[in-house]
Fold this protein.
Amino acid sequence: MKNYYIGMDVHKATIAIAALDASGKLVAQSIIETSTQTVRDFLHSVRGEVHVTFEEGNHAAWLYDIVEPLVKRVVVCNPKHNSKLMSGSKSDRIDARKLAELLRLNAVKAVYHGEHGTRTLKPLMRSYECFVSDITRVKNRLKGLYNSQAIMNRGRELYHTSKRQMWLEKLVNAGQRSRAELLFVQLEDLKELKRVAQKAMVAESTRHEAHKILSQVPELGPVRVAQIIATVDTPYRFRTKRPFWNYLGLAVETRSSSDHEVEDGRVKRKKKVIQTRGLNEDYNRRLKSIFKSAAVHACGCGVYKQYYEGLLKTGMRPEMARLGVARKLAATVLAVWKSGEAFDEGRIMSQAA
């Protein structure tokens, strides 16, 4: 049976498709409508073992559900990784063919798709995060408005409803005062919507078995637990803690060259310090924010404080010690989630080390 490698460049109205055989020869090329039936019709017309790839994006989850039952393999690939490989001219047809060629060479970097258990939780989480971002945006606009008039305001005092009239009276210009009133109204509406979205997200999160397990881990409240479950889906994506650290952006990248030398006719590894180049750049930003913020708080109290202080006593810089706490916390989450056992400060912490 012949193997065919199909690349899809997906857009709102159309999908550009290119199909290659095992030798890399272009055997089919087409532009189809972005719809369920046209995608199914095209794939049904291809005889043989079909491998499909397309880039992660707005249509990725929808297209994955359509394509996955109809082909031997489907890979949703990372567009950031592809941009380093797909140089030269660019168009929809060219991009589709380049994707097919990368798939044939097994040079695409997959983005995880597969679990359906969190399909309800994901949009609820995104709604909550959108309202949080919108609230921050409105607060920044209010801060900017008062700062533009050299009206001093510190911390959160500007947002207290009890002092709202006082702040409005400080604006002399009627237009600026009217704008501030509208922004204050918008802020209150967004806060109410955020509360509704958070309640729905947490309620849906409690339906998952992982919620009860992860809620026992220090520094993880109901919001962080819901975000972790919705983003990770399943802990079995990660064989060990190190791939998980890489996914969180907590993996240290190293660089070395000319690592070996010949001595007395034998190849030996040189004794030299491997240079570090910071943390990995390709990571999940939501999860990195969750674990970094949790680690910052954990360094000051709770079961991780002693661990943090122990790292400092070894001469480690505070920022590296906080990274160590974040990695310890992430390893603990993965270990507890996989085992399904209750968090135990002594046993689980030693296993996650």
